[in-house]
Each structure stands twice: as C-alpha cells, then as structure tokens.
Amino acid sequence: MFHLALVVCSIWVKILTFLNIKQLEYAALARRATQIQKELSQGVRKPYKELTDVCWGDPHSLGVKPLTFVRQVLAACVYPELMSSHKLPLDVRQRAQWLLGKCEGGSIGSYPASAGIPEIIQRMSKSIARRDGGVPCNPENVFISPGSQWSLTVTSLLLTSLNDEAPLRTGILIPVPCHVTTITSITSLGAAVVPYFLSEEHGWALQVEELQRALESAKGGCNPIALYVINPGNPAGYVQSRKSIQEVIRFASEKRLVLLADEVYQDCVYGKNSEFVSYKKVLAEMGPPFSDTVELASFHSVSKGFMGECGLRGGYVELVNLDPNVVNYISNLNYDTTSVLAQFALDLMMNPPRPGDPSYPLYNQVRNAVNAICLPGLSCQPVEGGAFVFPRVFLPPRAIQKAKEEGMQPDTFYCMRLLEETGVLITPGCEYRQKEGTYHIRYNIKNKLNSILLPH
Amino acid sequence: MFHLALVVCSIWVKILTFLNIKQLEYAALARRATQIQKELSQGVRKPYKELTDVCWGDPHSLGVKPLTFVRQVLAACVYPELMSSHKLPLDVRQRAQWLLGKCEGGSIGSYPASAGIPEIIQRMSKSIARRDGGVPCNPENVFISPGSQWSLTVTSLLLTSLNDEAPLRTGILIPVPCHVTTITSITSLGAAVVPYFLSEEHGWALQVEELQRALESAKGGCNPIALYVINPGNPAGYVQSRKSIQEVIRFASEKRLVLLADEVYQDCVYGKNSEFVSYKKVLAEMGPPFSDTVELASFHSVSKGFMGECGLRGGYVELVNLDPNVVNYISNLNYDTTSVLAQFALDLMMNPPRPGDPSYPLYNQVRNAVNAICLPGLSCQPVEGGAFVFPRVFLPPRAIQKAKEEGMQPDTFYCMRLLEETGVLITPGCEYRQKEGTYHIRYNIKNKLNSILLPH
Known about the structure:
Two copies of one chain form a homodimer. By secondary structure, chain A is of the alpha/beta class. Chain A has two domains: about 25-65 and about 375-450, Alpha-Beta Complex (Aspartate Aminotransferase, domain 1); about 120-350, Type I PLP-dependent aspartate aminotransferase-like (Major domain) (Aspartate Aminotransferase, domain 2). Chain A is about 40% helix and about 10% strand. The first copy, chain A, has helices spanning about 10-20, 25-40, 70-80, 90-100, 120-130, 150-160, 180-190, 210-220, 240-255, 280-285, 325-330, 340-350, 360-370, 395-405, 410-420, and strands at about 50-55, 140-145, 170-175, 190-195, 225-230, 260, 295-300, 315-320, 390, 425, 425-430, 440-445. In chain A, β6, α10 and β7 (about 295-300) form a beta-alpha-beta unit. Chain A is globular. Chain A starts with 9 loop residues before the first helix and ends in a 12-residue tail after the last strand. Residues about 1-25, about 370-375 and about 450-455 of chain A have low confidence and may be disordered. Chains A and B meet through α1, α3, α6 and α12 of A and α1, α3, α6 and α12 of B. Chains A, B: It is an enzyme of class 2 (transferase). Chains A, B: This is alanine transaminase.
C-alpha cells in the first residue's frame, strides 16, 4: 500500500538525474555546438553558414509549420473577437465556441476543473474508442497532464511505491535502444532498469525470447513489475505488428507485469505495410482472461505526432485494469498543472477536421506530407514510424582508436566530426544504449534537412 | 543537506491533503450548490434564476473581461498570420514578433529551454528592478513555474528537507486568516503550521508581538524555520506599510527565519493611502546586515492581479540570499512544466504597454477600473488590496445553536442559508482559521455582483 510520507519526489529527482546524465556524452557535443554558433556569429569561416540541430523531436524548432486549423482555433479561443470576422473558417469558429463554452465565464483565463475540463476528457475518450474500432474507453480512466513524460513518471512512481515493502527494489523492463529521459525517469524513482535488446537485424523487432532472457537476468537483483514498450519506436523507427503486440501482452499476463505503452508516435507511421494498432485494442481483441486482467497504461502527447506542439505542454495517460489505488491517486495528479490551451490542443489532436469541414482539405494535405527519407551510405533498418532514424555506423579501427585517445565513445567522436565539418548536430547512439561493439547515430527526420545528412 | 531519496513528493501529498481538507466545511456548501444548479436546470422555482459563485479568485469565471492587449499579443503568437493585417495595433504586433523571436524556429510549438526562455526571464528581472526603484534583480534568481502555489510548495519542500535531520519537525509561521491551500501546502510536506493572528481591530495588521508570541508557542513542538506573509492580504484585504515590513524583516533576521513573501496581489491595491512596497525593496533599503543576510522568497503569478489569467498556469519566485543548495535545486524545477504561452503572459504582465504605445489608453482604462466596494450591514475592515473581502458576521445565539444542531460551523450555516435564499455561494471564515468565537465570510470582489451580497 501507499505510504505517502515515503513517496519519493519523482519530479525533482528525475530532473536532477536527467541533468546529470545529459552531462555525459551529449554534453560535450552540445558545448562544442554552442562554441561553433558563437564562432559563426563572430564571422569565423566554416564550410557551413549555420548550425543545424536535429537531435530532438521538436519539429517546429526545425521549421516545420504548425497546423493551420489548430492555431486558428487556439487563436480564436485566446482572442474571441477574431470570431466576429468571417476570415476564419466556419468549423474553426464553431470549434472555438464549443471549447470556450466549456470554460467558466467562457474564458481560457478561468481555472479549469482540477482534474481537467470534463467535456474535453469525454470527447477524448470517444476519440480513443473510435481509434480502437469501438473498444470502449471510460473517461474516468483518462488523465491529462503537462506531457506524456510527466504521466509516465508519476505512473511509474505509483507502481514503485506500491511495491516499496518488497525486499528487492522495483524493476522495469526497457528496450535498448531507448530514449535517455525514459531511462532516467525510471532510475530516478529508485527503480532498476532491466534492459531488453531490440533485434536490429529484424527491423528492431521486439522478441519475446529476449524479454524472457531479460527477466531471467533480473532474478535476485530486482523485482520486475512493469514492462515499458514504445510503439512506434524511438529512437528506432519500427512499428509493432498486431502479432508482436499479442505476444507481448501474453508475456506480460504470464509474468504479471504492468504494460507501460508509450504510444506518442501513433500518428507517425510511414511504412507502406505498417499500421498503428494500439495495445488497448489488441488487448480487447484477445478477450478474457487477458482483456480484464492485464494492466495497461497508454501514453500520448500533443508534442509528438504530426502536431508537434511541444511548447503547449499537454499529454494524457489512459489506464486499463489498473489497481484502483493507482487510478485514484493519478486522478488527482493534474491539479493546477495543465493549462487550458494544452487541454484544447488535446481536443484538437484527437478530433481533427473531418471530410466536408472547411478546414479539412488543407489539414489533410499537411497531415499527409511526410518528408521523403534519404539515407544512402549508412546501414539503416526501414523507418516505419516515429520521428527519428537510428542508423548503424561502421567505423574503421583507426577512428575507434582516435576516439579512445580523445576520451570519447566512438559514435560521439563521429558526431563531433560531423558537427565540425558540416555544422549538423546529431546524437550518438551511446546515449540510448546499444549492443556492445555496435555504434549508431540518431536524428530527427521531421525536417527539411535530411539530404545533408550523408556520411563522408 | 539534501537526501534525495527522502525528499517527499510534495506535489502529490499536497494535492491529496488539499482535497481531503476541502471536504470538510466548504464541501457541504459545494455539494448543495451543485444540487441547486441541477434543480434550477430542472425548472424548480427559486427566488433567483442562477447560481452565483464568488468563492474563488477567478475573475474571468465571473465575467471579468481579459485585457485586450494581453489576448491580442497571445493570439498573434499562436497564429502569426494575424500580424500580416493591420487590425492589430503596432505595439501588439511588435511584442508578438519579439516573443516569437525568442522561440526556436519562431514558434510557440517548440520546446522552451528547460529553465524557461532566457530573454523573458531577463526582461522579468529588469521589470522587478524597475518596480523596486532600481534595486538590482539577478535573472539567475528568478524561476518560472506553472503557478505561485507550485513555487511556494517546492520552496517550502526544499527548506523542510534541508532540516530533515533536526530532532523536531520543521515549522512555518502562517497568518490567521490564511488561504486553505497555503496551509495544506505546508502541512502536507510534513511541516507544522505555527499560526499568528492578524489583528482585525487594527485593519488586520501584522504585529511583531504576535509573531513573538507565536514563535514562543512553537517551542518544544517544532523547529520554526520560515515565516509566510501575504501582502496584499488574502482573505483579508490589507496592504502592509513599509514600517510594518521593516519590523517583519527585523524579526526574521533576529530569529533566523526565511521570509516567504506571497506578493501575488501586488497589482491589486485600492486603498487611497495604500501603496504596495515589495519585501525585496524594503530589504534593500535597510542595508547590511539585513540586505545581505535575510533569506527571502517572493512569489507572483499571472492568475492573480489585474490579469487574472488563471487558465494559463504561470508564475514565478524570486530568491534573495537563499542557501545556494536551494537555489540550485529550484533552478531545475521548471523542467517541462510551464507552457510557452504562460511564459509570454509573464512577460506581458511585467512589461505592460507604456504611455505613447497604441495599446496604452485602453489598457490603462481597464487597469484602473476597480469595482466599487459596497458592504453595508457587515463589519468589515477597509479593503486596501487583494481580490477578497473577509467581513466579520455577528450571528445571533439562536443561529449558532441551530448551526450546532445541524453539525455545521456557525459561519458555514450562514453561507448555506445565503446559498439557499439567494443562490450566492461564498466561503465560510472557518476555512481560513479565525479567532475563536468570531465568524467571517470571504468572497471575491473582482466581479460585478457586489451589490447583491448584502446580509438579510
């Protein structure tokens, strides 16, 4: 059970640990990038005129334009006088009216209800049910927050504190490669990370035998209670098949692991034969005993996907079959943290314009404009989804030797050279963990600069 | 020193405790108000047609209009296409351009720097220095957050954890009356609340002898480390004089207490002879040893004051002379919680249009339109500032007897009767603590309904 006085302040610790970890490999690159930027501004001549940072999943910072429909609705909500003119499409004005009607006094300036605006959460639930072909979604299980990472951290925190009397510390299975913030979210809670390796040779597939091996490896060291999956992937851009998800659910059921399904890239699927299917949907399809016992938390965000509204700070988690204690605690988590506009953005993401709406044609056109991916010269698994590529780089022994002499990981060395010679800042694979002896790089593909990212 | 693993998750505990406390006196009123609203919607006849809730500091929910300048700038930032027309005043467009220029990719959709947008924090610092007649403000001591309550909680949390090895638990002095969320923020951290009574007879003055008495009363029970003051007041609408502030600073210095100065109502001063002077300014004026030793945290927010943008979730704390450990930890607190628009709103609050700017005349007119306060029949100290009145109600013994029979505090009983008979929802004084045998009510004066709030 919960012991409030002992619950660790996840948010704080997470932040601090995160900052420390960031100081390892990436920080050397970031420092050099700052210097280069300064040198460029002082007129130092280089083979490039500006620095290009494609490390992060931050499309707007890379020049990707926001969705017009989203920004028009939000602007009309901020300044309702805009609705008196007919310059904004009818569906924009109608949506803004609807959203403002759910605010006390009709203003985004009034306090939203502590747990979020009820009508917005109800609509989000309907939209989740629609996404899943009719699988019901209870609005009481949907919890908004200032971002999916926040939701993941507090969910993990509660699961960890549920087990704080166990003799061994809590463990959570995580994929390798995995985003550094996820790893630090977990370790900062005092929980252990139990790595399972995705199979690069098989398109970064998630293999149950490997989950089994990872679980065995944890024996005696920690008490694994949850399995974190990210689909579509980050940094590796795979999309899980229904069959793969079924296998994972069966495994979680058998081993009594809570499934933490990071589905923030659900709207970013490019593979011709790939399709996003949610864990929730597959779970429902599998029927009892799975559908009413396997504990699942699914995360989503307005920062990722095609909206890319990272600055608004909005996300949610849907909880299925979770311990009522956890649900009850999370139901209070949102108090006073998620802005009204972030809640509106969730509504807009999950209820986009439909065919026939005035805003639909433009929205649909931008929505489908996925940049072509061009990566000759690197060994890279096909990118089926997500916002990143994670190609493998094969470095000559001399480069590896040189990296050692300079006290860097070989892939950090590669990134540093790329930065010096081209002004392009990418992230080394060692930030995400990788199989020993392999080297990777990660960069964002949701920008217009792919073609310059060719290895020399 | 800090023991991260032992730092209590303040946010969570705060929320839960807050919700529990709210369930005491106010909840009965809120439940009845919900019923009344339902009855009204079902056509039940009552002496009023709608429910009027003036419990909270939420001006927009009560029909107060947002500031045009603020909303125009934010709308232009959300939807920059608006700037191509000349319908928006020049200073609005210029400000929006400036703000967007501080975002990566020129979009509010990109991630802000972890600790906030540096240029905005620099401007906020300059504005604080201007407010204080030139007393310098170091931007490295200003920390943005999703609200002042958040900042207060984490500051208190850090101060408390700094003392977690002391044999007695930490104590924080708080005024009576005091807002319930402040009390619960403190108690939820495991700290003790040490109440000092404001003197109603002297216009709710803060008297040093009373601080002395309160401190004495804590002896053996807890270890007081901080003194919380709110100026201008809430729920009592006093404004502290410079002399009063000097006395408090001297007291804090002598007793080595950290000053937690809640100054969120600094822009709400109505008293003819009242003027807001910040604790920071008075501290600087007093010179050494005070100015370089007394530890001060000053809180502000876009929710309070004349902007009343509660839905945007933005605030800040400025730290003066604080333990570098605390400053260092707080510097990381904002990670990924405060939206870009909340940061913009802070800039707009602290750098309003100036005389000569196109937006100035309208801005100034609205800014100065303070509602007249009309309160015959109740004993109420003059309201000099803040957003609330806290009049004393004198109840006949029969009413007190009746309240007892119904299991309510006498002032809750009064509020319940007012709700039934007029449809107006206000808060009983017992929610804020009060001297035994006295009864009060609190309601918001930043709305257009004052005249209906006359006692029967």
